[in-house]
Amino acid sequence: MRAADAAATAAQMAGLALAPLLPGGVQALKARLQGRRGPGVLQPYRELRRLWRRGTVDPEGSGAAYRWAPVAAAAALAVCVLVVPVGAWGTAWPAGHDALLLVGLLALARIAVALSAWDTGGGFGLMGASRELAFAVVGEALLVLVVLLAAIPAGSTDLRAMWEAGAGTGPWEDPARWCAALAMGLVVLLETGRQPIDNPDTHLELTMVHEGPLLEYAGRDLALLQWTAAARHWVVLVVAASLALPHPGDAAGGLAALALGVLALVGGLALVESWQAKMRLLRVPPTLLAGVAVALAGVVSAAWGAG
Amino acid sequence: MLVAGAGSIACGVALTGVRRAGIAVALLLQAAGTALVGAVGAVCLLDGRTVGAGFTSDLEPSLGVDPLSGLFLLLVALVAVPAALYAIPYLAGARRPRTLAALTGLFGLALAGVVTARDAVTFLALWEVMTLVPAAAILVARGDAPARRAVFEYLAVTRIGGAGVWVALLALAHHGALGDPAGLAAAGGGAQALVAVAGIVGFGTKAGLVPLHAWLPRAHPLAPSNVSAVMSGAMVSVALYGLARLLTGWPGGPPAWVGFTVLALGALSALTGILYAVFQADLKRLLAFSTIENAGIVTAALGAAALLEARGEARWAATALAAGLLHALAHALAKALLFLTAGSVERATGGLRIDAMGGLLGRMPATGGATLVGALALAGVPVLAGFASEWATLGALIELARADAVGTALAGALGAAALAATTGLAVVCFVALAGLALLGRPRGPGAAAATEVPGPMRWAPAALAAGCVALGVAPGPLMPALERLAPGGDGAEVAAGVGVPGASLPTLGAALALGGAAALLAVARGRRPRAAAPVWNCGQDAGRELAWTSAAFTKPLRLAFGGMLRPRRGVEVVARAGIVREIRHRGGVPHLFDSLLYGPTARAALAGAGAARRLQSGSIRQYIAALVGVVVLLLALARAGALG
Q1: H or E segment to which residue B276 belongs
Q2: Which of A133, B249, B328, B392 could form a disulfide with B323 if both were Cys (CB 3.0 to 4.6 A apart)?
Q3: What is the average pLDDT score of chain B?
């Protein structure tokens, strides 16, 4: 194995530990942009450590679904993190690096949490879960169209092939890639659960989407779910940076470009959060549908250009 | 072996007529016979072998099994064997169990017969038997007015479908194209179009494709659960067998418009079916609508295969076909499972209303666990059956979207988006089903008193659940055999992007990774002291009044798709002496096809019948005049040479 491959594999595995840096970075940057001092970049790690030491709470009447949901969700995201390649190098896993596998694993995590909400039967958890699943209906279509747009030049839905196909060319050269980038931006907002689609800092139950089903959890279970949310940030930001941002074809330059791209996206999220208020719930599906229309326009433009 | 199997089923059917023999023995014989037939099918599929006669346009009856028939024989057996075993205790509590047991066997025999028929006459005869048996089963099991009405609608709609199948088959036989594809190529464009349209209408009706689906959600829920399971799992698949046979039998792929039509019908059915399934309050009705969805996914994959074949991408066409067939298999297993457990739940709780269930996973662990597996498999969760096939179908649609022709590319992209949205809706639907029925606290007196069902009613769904897991974890060995079924597929190579070397679908790797990660995390979490606490509901008890219903859970979707679904709602305030005693909310999602399409069609048909009735005046002179007029017209046409 060459040094570059080893470095890429290490970076891929390091995602498991580095993921909480991303939401921490967004929070810290957002506080700065709003003129507050705010918590540091490492705040998520402190929270995870504190939660890990605490005991667990079982809502009365809940059963196996409640107990196993954090483990199932965290396992799905852990596999996601390992499957998302950092660049086109590193080890090929037996599970493959197919972008459509990501769609399934993200859905698995959502389903586990939604089932735990049904198991507790609490109103706020189910409210959040039902909203999250409803958004995901359009969100999955959007994500598949983004994958499709990236697969057109690559000839495959393998994330490594997509990265290689995008190497050395600028996204500004092709209208289809503008559309893909725009649609991917919406996917990032949806999957990370950030404003204007969701608010990760909310403490008002009625506005919660992703945080709703987490209300009942405490201790290590909550720590696993918090890490899951951070891993979602890692997965979608790395995928967005590799599909939508320019990068050179060689290993070292590619890794550096990817790191810069993820940092830029973290900055972008903080900027959007400072400037956009949370959207009305009913406006989310139409917004996502607009993204679908943009992505379809990208498909048409790609077919036109080729034919 | 095939004959032995069929004979065994026939013996099983005959035994139900013998007064002294037990139903259990008869059903066991049927199950054994079906298993034998299925084994023949499996051997033919995996070995690529052909047994018996090939297709013939002659009138001589002939039977045979080729790999495609083999797959569907296997599918029929996978559904019918557990259903027959399940029926042993289930029918004991039903009305007229002997007749139902006989019909169960006859149904299996007809399904296996349709798949093995090799000439038009045998095929059409068995096709009609296959249509009539469930109608008889519904009438035997429940003879009330709604059942009679549903059977009438079922027969009325499937008549149209049956006519389509007749026209398609007779046209094929007329051109001698039943046996060899070259006949179809020589037949010319008009005949090809006739075969395609009649075939799509005929097989599509039976498969429940939109807009010919209205009978399916009415008829499937009414039959006894063991028959419902075979209807939804196997009969729909046999209709898809017809469609697959039609599309793969075309030399060099069917014309592009056929592919586009099939793809569009499939995508539309998938979306419509699951969208209405989300809003059903009756368990079996929900499952029936979901059958429409899954038939749509298979059809979309078949359409994509036809389009890819026409574009000359044989490898991807083979992948798309294999994905569709794999999905048919996955759906058959999961749907049969869910219909069987729906029967158990109905027995245990006394009803099928989802909102009145709850907590069944704890009270009926075997039934509940199997239901959970089936629901998650149909929701397309990795790594259960259904995920791999949807994954491969999406891959094929994405490949279609890479075409340089704008129409084809857009069709592929729209199909991929529709399939993704379908899986999203399926998640909502089956999470709500699993949550309401299995998790949390009982929501009604029936659910609170539920107890586990007797032996075979537990084992049959458990076996199907094991099948769902096995097919999801390792579709690898099956995929090459399925890809060989495509006209240009040699199965040697798997299309890029879907496969890695060593396994045709890397779901096994994903399953191992997921299992390993979950085990590690569970060990890391360890056993910690757990404190019990009430659920946070702003300090109120989340009792029955505050419990969530399926209507509440699907409200965001109802709002988001309100313009399309036109939900109904009404609030009624009951006030006595100026004090509000009660507020009743009523709401629902009406089936728009009923009011916008079927209603007007039925009214027009009745009006036409009324007009035609005037001819029937009873005056013999008028009849003779009409006859003479027709004869004169025919003679004139013959004279002019218009009759050929």
Answers
A1: helix B256-278
A2: B392
A3: 86
List the end-to-end C-alpha distance of chain B, in Å, as a whole number: 48
B401 three-class SS: helix
R_g of chain B, CA atoms, integer Å:
26
Q: Which residues pair with B582 in a beta bridge?
A: B574
Chain B residues in contact with A197 by the CB 8 A cut-off are: none
pLDDT tens readout for residues B384-410: 988 989 988 998 999 899 888 888 999
Q: Which residues contact A192 (CB under 8 A, 6 or more apart)?
A: A23, A200, A229, A232, A233, A236, A237, A269
Residue B384 in contact with residue B373, Cβ under 8 Å?
Answer: yes
* Residue A72 contacts B, CB cutoff 8 Å: yes
Three-class DSSP labels, B74-97: HHHHHHHHHHHHHHHHHHHCCCCH
Query: Are the Cβ atoms of A111 and B435 closer than 8 angstroms?
Result: no
What are the C-alpha distances in Å from B494 to residues B67, B91, B510? Answer: 19, 45, 18
Task: Write a three-state SS string for A214-281.
Answer: HCCCCHHHHHHHHHHHHHHHHHHHHHHHHHHCCCCCCHHHHHHHHHHHHHHHHHHHHHHHHHCCCCCH
Could you give the CA distance from residue B112 to residue B73 in angstroms, rounded to a whole number?
Answer: 6
Cα gap A300→B404, rounded to integer Å? 9
Q: Which two tokens stand for residue B35?
A: 């298993």
Reduced DSSP (H G I as helix, E B as strand, rest coil) percent helix, strand, coil of chain A, to 5? 75, 0, 25
Using left for φ > 0, alpha for ψ between -120 and 50, and beta otherwise, residue A193 falls in: left
Strand, coil or helix: B569: strand
Chain B positions touching A158 (Cβ under 8 A) are 496-497
Q: C-alpha angle with apex A211: A209 to A217, nearest 5 degrees?
A: 140
Task: Nearest chain B residue to A214 by CA: give it.
Answer: B536
Q: Which residues of B touch A220 (CB under 8 A)?
A: 525-526, 528
Of B15-19, B70-74, B389-393, the one with minimum mean pLDDT is B15-19
Query: Could you tell me the end-to-end alpha-carbon distance of chain A, in angstroms, rounded to an integer?
Result: 41
| Chain A residue with minimum CA distance to B395 | A157
* B383 cis-preceded (ω within 30 degrees of 0): yes
Q: Give the range among A176-190, B267-281, B487-501, B520-534 with minimum mean pLDDT.
A: B487-501
Whole-angstrom CA distances from B294 to B106, B237, B299, B327, B374 are 25, 10, 8, 8, 13
Instruction: Give residue-wise pLDDT tens across range A195-220.
Output: 888 887 777 777 788 888 888 898 89
- Whether this prediction's pTM lies above 0.90 is answered by yes
Cβ partners under 8 Å of residue A96, min gap 6? A83, A158, B500, B506, B509, B510
Report the run of H or E that residue B530 belongs to, with start and end.
strand B530-533
Rounded CA separation B101/B344 (Å):
18
**Residues A124-158: pLDDT tens digits?**
889 999 999 999 999 999 999 999 999 888 888 88
Cα radius of gyration (chain A): 19
Give the 3-state secondary structure percentages of chain B, helix then strand then coil, rounded to 5.
Answer: 70, 5, 25
